[in-house]
Amino acid sequence: MTVDDSGRLELWSGRRATAFHTVSDAAQAKLLTDAKARELFTPFLAREVTASRAAAEAGVDLNTMLYRIRTFLAAGLLRVVREVPRKGRAIKVYASEHDAYFIPYEVTPFASLEERLVEHMLVDVRERARLQAKRLDKSGWSGQRLYRNELGEVWTDSARDPESQLDWHAPGKEVSIDFWTDVLLSYEEARALRATLYQALKRFEGRKQPGVLQVASEANDELKEYRLSVAFIPLDEGA
Fold it and tell me: Among 57, 51, 15, 42, which residue's Cα sits nearest to residue 100?
């Protein structure tokens, strides 16, 4: 990481350096830390894209995207890089004003860092709960068991009835897993587990690029989106 004469931070990734613009404007910080606004801004980040393409990628209608584009332009987050001539009105192509952003907590609208994290996490938690509830209801696993296993550990899990045993490896079982629990690990075990989780993340990096699903479809490769959510943190607040 380096700092150039203008004070911009640069993070080197391979041979390409990404310059991080430090946000000092409160209006920009509010938009970039708002989950919904950020989701609609990201199609324009560090590349050129039209409003219709951005809307398709974000999964919203064109009018919603156009409204957000006007907001981003007014805030100085977007710029029109060029216009493509066509019969009637030309098509505008947009890009983010900067390729990458660093938003100091101090300029965000949140009262505390914890509040900011909770605000971001709630979006994913609600979506995760919605998807899981739909899956469990469809499969009939809408009950919950509370018990102590043969190792003396207390567990809660979803179940169809008191005797149901969930087999993650059962033939025909939907490919998914969702659980959270506390585990006791040595320092070396914790480092090894963190490495395993990180490797899982890096293994499929790059597949979120636009057009990947289309290329896979044309090659008859079945790609389906999955939500991979990982949190691995020490419970000792002083750690």
Answer: 42
